[in-house]
Amino acid sequence: MIESEISNSKFQIPVIGIIMGSDSDLPVMQAAADMLKHFEITFELTVVSAHRTPQRMFEYAKTAKDRGLKVIIAGAGGAAHLPGMVAAITPLPVIGVPIKSSNSIEGWDSILSILQMPGGVPVATVALNAANNAAILAAQIIGAFDERIGKKITDYKQNLEKEVYEKVQNLQSGNYPNTFDTK
Ligand code: RP5
Fold first, then answer.
1. For 9-26, what is each residue's pLDDT tens digit?
2. What is the structure's pLDDT at 104?
3. Is the entire prediction scored with pTM above 0.85?
4. Least CB-packed of 1, 13, 17, 60 within 10 Å?
5. Rg of the chain's alpha carbons, rounded to an integer?
6. Residue 129: phi, psi to the nearest 5?
């Protein structure tokens, strides 16, 4: 059962795989690792380059499910074929993070490479550099089956809501007109 696997605190096998085309992607992808730590979801993180290490990419994607991973988060910049190629090989859901890298044309190259997958091989694509959103989406996929993680997602969303109400309160204290909240 997925619930006992993931929620058992003694179970240390990573359930999310974070991969990226280069270590130059790490400053962006670090946010995914930080968010998964927040949700207390086990993960692994490494560099897998589709064009520099194609054999490694194939092996990673081919073995991912049998190694216990449930979701793969793949970040890449430029002609970013890593998420799509991994999605072509593994049956696991793949979440792609387009990265605005040093060789990028304002990020559009990686956005379109990851987003515009042909029919039959989807990659769930988040916004440019949005590795935190990739981790939240991965946690939501796991949380749909795992009660403990599902509760953490609910708490996270409630906290987002609370933060907005604090901002509303702060603006009101600054005497900005707001007939909506003034009863
Ligand atoms: C892509 O090329 C990587 O994902 C990275 O975003 C970009 C640049 O890689 P480096 O030249 O910094 O290794 O494959």
1. 445 799 999 999 999 999
2. 87
3. yes
4. 1
5. 19
6. 65, 10
The number of residues making up the chain comes to 183
For atom 2 of ligand 1, which residue has the closest CA?
77
pLDDT tens digits, one per residue of 93-141: 999 999 999 888 999 999 999 999 999 999 999 999 999 999 999 999 9
Contacts of 77 (CB under 8 A, 6+ apart): 21, 22, 24, 25, 98, 99, 100, 101, 102, 103, 104, 107, 109, 110
Give the integer Cα–Cα distance in Å for 128 and 93.
19
What lines the ligand 1 site, CB under 6 Å?
20-22, 24-25, 49, 76-78, 99, 101, 103
Distance CA(12)–CA(10), nearest Å, equals 6
Q: Are 169 and 160 in contact (CB under 8 A)?
A: no
Q: Which long-range contacts (CB under 8 A, 24 or more apart) does 24-31 make?
A: 24/77, 24/101, 24/102, 25/75, 25/76, 25/77, 25/99, 25/101, 28/75, 28/97, 28/99, 28/100, 28/129, 28/131, 29/73, 29/75, 29/97, 29/99, 29/131, 30/131, 31/131, 31/132, 31/135
pLDDT at 11: 52
The minimum-distance atom of ligand 1 relative to the CA of 102 is: 8
Query: What is the pairing mode between strands 94-99 and 71-77?
Result: parallel
How many CB atoms lie under 10 A from the CB of residue 179? 6
